[in-house]
Amino acid sequence: MALPRTSTGEPSTVPARVLRLAPEPRAEIERSAREAYPSEVCGVLLGRRVGDGIAVEEVARARNLRVGAAPGGESARSFELDPGALVAAEDRARTLGLEIVGIWHSHPDAPAIPSEEDRRSAWRGWCHLIVAVDRNSITDVRAWLLDRGEIPIVSAPSAEAARSISSFRLA
Asked: For position 115, what pLDDT does the model report?
């Protein structure tokens, strides 16, 4: 898969300091987490690096290969993203002039903090968005980078507004 790139197409050497997540992609991620509960659900974040941040413009839900693979077909309490979905997301990103900027997944009945397995499987340079969900609601959404730890999520008023941002920095 492609290495993280800036909005001009150059390889990114600046670690992201903030994730800009428009309402539409966030709503799609949260809806998917609620639908999949009590299993983990996963997907891909499509967007671009802008300044020292990441702007997510679209998300793609992926099949969790561990759902139904547990003894007795139990729900999955971990995830393995279908490689075919990753290839399809890369194709979609290329078509839209975007990049894969990260992975998202849910933590049913658990905090939105990376597990040891999450840390071991994290891709350096990609954002990892974790959605905590319980039987009733989304309880938390957090973004992480392997090298930096948690990064803040900033909401944009719309996907169009997120695309128009030239730079954004933490105060």
From this structure: 87
